[in-house]
Amino acid sequence: MGSHKIVVEGIVVVVVVVATVGGVEVMGLPPCEFPAIYNFGDSNSDTGGISAAFEPIPAPYGENYFRKPAGRDCDGRLVIDFIAEHLRLPYLSAYLNSIGTNFRHGANFATGGSTIRRQNETIFDYGISPFSLDIQIVHFDQFKSRTGDLYNRGGNSDRDKLPKPEEFSKALYTFDIGQNDLSVGFRKLSDEQLRAAMPDIINQFASAVQHLYEKGARAFWIHNTGPIGCLPVGTFYIRNPQPGFLDQFGCIKGQNDMAVEFNRQLKDRVNKLRAELPLAALTYVDVYTAKYGLISNTKNQGFTDPLKVCCGHHENYDHVWCGQKASINGTQYYGASCATPSTFISWDGVHYSEAANHWIADRILNGSLSEPPIPVTHACHKNPGL
Ligand SMILES: *[C@@H]1O[C@H](CO)[C@@H](O)[C@H](O)[C@H]1NC(C)=O
Ligand SMILES: *[C@@H]1O[C@H](CO)[C@@H](O)[C@H](O)[C@H]1NC(C)=O
Ligand SMILES: *[C@@H]1O[C@H](CO)[C@@H](O)[C@H](O)[C@H]1NC(C)=O
């Protein structure tokens, strides 16, 4: 055991040194000036997909930044919005939004409830989106080919709201997906079955990246999955947990272990993709560490108990979700917002608050949690060290 541990640490040290050297080299290069972002994911980065395709996300969602519902499962901005701001690009329009859209600087294919793998259930069962990653990729293909057609038509006023065809290969392709493959797994599979399914989930993710590469994408910014066991929703229904079921912060340990395993395999696969896709610049971003870092250190960061929820009525095992109305024992309740949303990590029990998203974005944008450790502004440069 002892010598094994030393070997493992030795490998880690070597990787860090190589990556840091590479990061410094890349930093000497000019910023990428991405003309567009194409995003793929779930509710962590949905900026209006589900609201366009199904029912709009209601108030009080959006109230603390947009001052109205803005298609986001949050009181304000998501991490993808902070990425867009940081790259001096406008917020992304959802591809599925049929009105008031502007795709000049990219499009968002993410929808709340999306999984990497297709699921055998409808959104009306447990909120799983029909737009799994493979469908999001099909949407991207349609978007790209229709953009080409409309552009070539000439004198078309649509042009102002479309990307230039030659800009697709210069864009940043971002991903934040996998959390719902785990949540479906927790609901339907044993731990053993979910672990057995993991390589297929990761392979389907890799296929999506490969497909985009074949279509000309070069810069990929890939978020790993967060500590799903720390979402308050998971702990709502737990009454008398066995010792060791929860960690010291109240998170479900077994669920976080599964997220860590997913991330281990994802990181491994991204490493292999670097060899398979010689012209791609692939950045693996450790969002898990950012989120868990916040949850494990809330007080020092000006936040309250990480398992408390700002929006919704959650008392005595009765739950009225954020923005919903329900009657409990004959009394009407409304899932209202709290007085100080900026001190909450969880906005609605499932999704992070804008304040938390801002904190997380600050940790990941400069590359300190990435492999290679380069900031998002430089993510087009292939790292010579990797
Ligand atoms: C999908 O759901 C149907 C109906 O519940 C079931 O019969 C079928 O076996 C499921 N298929 C898979 C692949 O899970
Ligand atoms: C509603 O009634 C149930 C069963 O009688 C009880 O357990 C629960 O505490 C009640 N909830 C409220 C909010 O009064
Ligand atoms: C990145 O930002 C975080 C948070 O502001 C900071 O703690 C960290 O030192 C920064 N890292 C680099 C490499 O600039």
From TrEMBL:
Xref: CDD domains: SGNH_plant_lipase_like
UniProtKB keywords: Glycoprotein, Hydrolase, Membrane, Signal, Transmembrane, Transmembrane helix
GO molecular function terms noted in the UniProt entry: hydrolase activity, acting on ester bonds
TM region positions: 7-29
Domain of life: Eukaryota
Coiled-coil annotated residue ranges, if any: none
InterPro entries assigned: GDSL, SGNH_hydro_sf, SGNH_plant_lipase-like
Pfam families membership: Lipase_GDSL (PF00657)
Family to which this protein belongs: Belongs to the 'GDSL' lipolytic enzyme family.
Protein known as: Uncharacterized protein
Protein source organism: Rhododendron griersonianum
Source species taxonomy: Eukaryota, Viridiplantae, Streptophyta, Embryophyta, Tracheophyta
